Amino acid sequence: MTATNLFNATQADAVEAAARSLVQVTREGTRQLVTLPLFYPSGAAATVEVKYVGPQFHINDCGLAYHEAEMLGGEYLFQRNAPKVAQKHGVQAGRQTLHWMAQSDQLAGGIADVAGASTELARTIVERLAKRSETDIEDHLYPKLKKIFGKQNVSERVELSGASAHKWTVSALVQLGGPTLAFQAVTNHHSSVYTSGIMLHDLFLLERKVVPIAVVRNKEEMGDYLRILAQSANVIQEDVAEAELRRLAA
User: Fold this and answer.
1) How far apart are CA 41 and CA 129, in angstroms?
2) 191 and 105 in a common domain
3) What superkingdom heads the lineage (predicted)?
């Protein structure tokens, strides 16, 4: 008897039920809220509001992208980035929302486009905030490294190949004749932690040719992210004592 890939009725029902559960619709008065399996940096699921404004439907993102930015003090970046992201997804940007007017036969696409644009916009803003915070850490780090190790031994924003041969850009390198010290500024934003974590691990695999060092603003503020970084790098605060830096270089 040959094997078959056809689902039986029970299996098909299970798949259909699972697929239906990914999207939830809640009716609140004259509006309906549609929750989709797309997520913001905070972990919240994308929810769009749909209202009938005859003869069309008005779809908006409930201001969730703006709220994500606001939670991190980055609401000023909403207006700077919203128009470009909205245009990419074929929707419109308002002061605090992304929205679109759709005919009934355009509803599915409109809902998906608004939700996709909203979550992408939030990620874009969070990544830019993380990058600016990394720059702030670097601005504190560079003078300290140059004072301790000598300006001639410190390089800023340098490309370095990891064990994978991929080229990474690190915040700073200190070269004193022994293993190279590779410093990377990391914020408590997940995008910064995961990108830096991959890089630091790749450098760690260079078998002691490079000493990976993650520089954070405050270890306590990092929470569980600290353990991710500590798996492959020394983790120091930006206000690290001179003695600790010399110990790492020894």
Assistant:
1) 12
2) no
3) Bacteria
What is the tens place of the pLDDT at every residue in 137-147? 999 999 999 99
> Tokens standing for 186?
């990391």
pLDDT value, residue 199: 96
Residue 47 belongs to domain with CATH number: 3.30.1460
DSSP state of 45: E
Which of 129, 158, 186 is the last residue before a domain boundary? 129
Q: What is the CATH number of the domain that holds 217?
A: 3.40.91.20
Residue 40: CB atoms within 10 A of its CB come to: 20
Question: Is residue 201's pLDDT more than 50?
Answer: yes
Average pLDDT over residues 179-206: 92
Domain that holds residue 53: 18-129
CB 105 within 8 A of CB 99: no
For residues 212 and 243, membership in a common domain is answered with yes
Alpha-carbon span 142 to 84, nearest angstrom: 34
Same domain, 115 and 40: yes
Distances (CA, A) of 27 to 22, 97, 108: 17, 20, 17
CA dihedral sign of residues 140, 146, 152, 158: negative
Mean per-residue pLDDT for 74-90?
A: 95
Q: Which of 52-56, 87-91, 170-174 has the lowest mean pLDDT?
A: 52-56
Domain-located, residue 9: no
Indicate the number of domains in the chain. 2
**What is the rounded distance in angstroms from the CA atom of residue 196 to the CA atom of residue 34?**
35
Q: Which single residue is written with the structure tokens 């992210």?
A: 225
